[in-house]
Each structure stands twice: as C-alpha cells, then as structure tokens.
C-alpha cells in the first residue's frame, strides 16, 4: 500500500520595480519544510554631485583720508619710568599743575643778566648749570647735578650722583638723589625730598613735605620740613636750628661748636 504525498506548493511573487531596481521573492512550501528565497537587484550606483561655488563678494574698505590723523608709535626711554630711582612707589614723569601747592618763582639776577629758559634737562652724564635759569620741566641726570647761580625748576630734580647748590634753587616739586647733597645758599622744594647719601646745609633748606636722609645730616644754618627722618646722625652747628612737625633720628644727635677750644 502506498502513502499518498501531497504535492509541493510553490508560489512566486513578483513586485514591479523601477527601471533602476528589481526584487523577486520566491516561496516554496512543502509539508515538511518551506523555504523562501529573496533575490534583490543591486541598488543603483550613487551619482556624484558637484557643488558650484557661490559667487564671490568683494568688500571695499575705505582708506583713511589725507586729512585724517594717524597715530604714531613713540619710543619710551628709561627716564619715563624711573623704576630704579624709586624704592617705595613709581614716580610718573611730567608736571601736574594741581599737584603742588607751592609757588613757582622766576629767578632774577642782581646783575641784570637775561634769564635763560629750558623746557627740561636730561643727561646720562654730569650736569653743570649756570644761572640765572628757568626750567619749565625737570632736571635729571644719570650722574651728578650742580646748580651755580639762581634757578627755578617747575618739575622734579633727580640725580644718581651728588647734587650741589651754590646760590638759590626754587623747585616746585620734589627732589631725589642717590648720592650726597650739599647746599651752599638757599633751596626750597614744594614736595618731599629723599636723599640716599649725606645732606649738609650751609644756608637754608625748606621742604614743603617730608625729608628723609639715609646718611648723616649736618645743619649749619636753618632747616624746615614737615616730617624729618634721619637714618644716621643729626648734627647742628653753633646756633643753627631746625623745625619739623615730627622727627625720627636713628643715630646720635650732636651739637658742634666751631669756636670751641678743648
């Protein structure tokens, strides 16, 4: 006796496709198993796209007119900053009309000589000045400064060496010296005075500010200041005297008698 077997069943499904692609699905089934075969045509190759460059844009930048001021770069010298001249705070170069309360006196000559005028005086060597002279700026030297005659200085006086005054000096600002200062005559300053060497006064010195001397101070005449600070000794000669709102002397206070015979 023979078994009856069922015929296998095969179905074919075809889907329409675009000209660029084709897919065929064949399904075969039997009582024991069924299989499905999917055949797909390869996808069309990608087409390259070329991007056209965008149109360029031209920007016209106007050039400065002939009458327009173009700023120039200036070179700053060592005198502008004065960093090594100051150990406590920087000092800006230039005259401030509202920064000083003292008056500015024009020098006069007893002999009737013409008073010379200068804007400012700066040198890397020693300066030897002859008065009468009026300086509208500052007097600065990398060495020593000597004033011989009558002088009026509107801005500061600074020297890396000694400063000598032989005559009259009226300074509306401050003074700073890295060396010794010797005054043979009269000197007036509108702001503080700082001396890193010795100070010897053979005449008078008036400071409308603080006076600080790191070396010995000798007064043979008259001294007036606001606050006096002496880091060494203070000596007054004969009947000389000084006046200050406050004083600090770290060394000895001495009185010298010129006619004393011991």
Helix and strand topology:
Elements: E1 9-15, E2 23-29, E3 34-40, H1 78-81, E4 116-118, E5 121-123, E6 127-130, E7 133-135, E8 139-141, E9 145-153, E10 157-159, E11 163-171, E12 175-177, E13 181-189, E14 193-195, E15 199-207, E16 211-213, E17 217-219, E18 222-230, E19 234-237, E20 241-249, E21 253-256
Parallel strand pairs: 4-7, 5-8, 6-9, 7-9, 8-10, 9-11, 10-12, 11-13, 12-14, 13-15, 14-16, 15-17, 15-18, 16-18, 17-19, 18-20, 19-21
Antiparallel strand pairs: 1-2, 2-3
Key terms for this structure?
262 residues; mainly beta; 18-stranded parallel sheet; three-stranded antiparallel sheet; 1 helix; 21 strands; 44% strand; globular; disordered N terminus
Description of the molecule:
The N and C termini lie far apart (168 Å). Helix content is 2%, strand content 44%. With 262 residues, the chain is mainly beta. It has one helix at residues 78-81; strands at 9-15, 23-29, 34-40, 116-118, 121-123, 127-130, 133-135, 139-141, 145-153, 157-159, 163-171, 175-177, 181-189, 193-195, 199-207, 211-213, 217-219, 222-230, 234-237, 241-249, 253-256. Residues 1-54 and 66-105 have low confidence and may be disordered. The chain has an 18-stranded parallel beta sheet that branches. Strands 1-2-3 form a three-stranded antiparallel beta sheet, with no helix packed on it.
């Amino acid at each position: 006796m023979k078994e009856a077997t069922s015929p296998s069943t095969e179905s074919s499904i075809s889907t329409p496709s675009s000209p660029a692609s084709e897919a065929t699905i064949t399904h075969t089934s039997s009582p024991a198993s069924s299989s499905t075969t999917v055949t797909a045509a390869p996808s069309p190759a990608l087409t390259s796209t070329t991007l056209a460059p965008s149109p360029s844009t031209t920007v016209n930048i106007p050039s400065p007119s002939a009458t327009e001021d173009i700023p120039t770069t200036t070179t700053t010298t060592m005198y502008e900053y004065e960093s090594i001249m100051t150990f406590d705070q920087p000092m800006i170069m230039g005259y401030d009309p509202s920064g000083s309360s003292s008056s500015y006196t024009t020098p006069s000559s007893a002999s009737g000589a013409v008073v010379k005028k200068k804007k400012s005086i700066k040198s890397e060597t020693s300066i030897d000045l002859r008065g009468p002279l009026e300086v509208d700026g500052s007097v600065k030297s990398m060495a020593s400064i000597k004033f011989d005659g009558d002088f009026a200085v509107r801005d500061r006086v600074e020297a890396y060496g000694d400063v000598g005054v032989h005559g009259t000096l009226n300074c509306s600002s401050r003074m700073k010296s890295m060396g010794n200062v010797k005054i043979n005559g009269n000197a007036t300053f509108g702001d503080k005075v700082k001396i890193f060497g010795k100070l010897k006064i053979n005449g008078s010195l008036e400071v409308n500010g603080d006076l600080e001397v790191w070396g010995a101070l000798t007064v043979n005449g008259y001294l007036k200041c606001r606050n006096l600070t002496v880091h060494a000794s203070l000596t007054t000669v004969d009947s000389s005297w000084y006046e200050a709102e406050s004083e600090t002397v770290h060394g000895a206070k001495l009185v010298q008698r010129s006619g004393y015979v011991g």
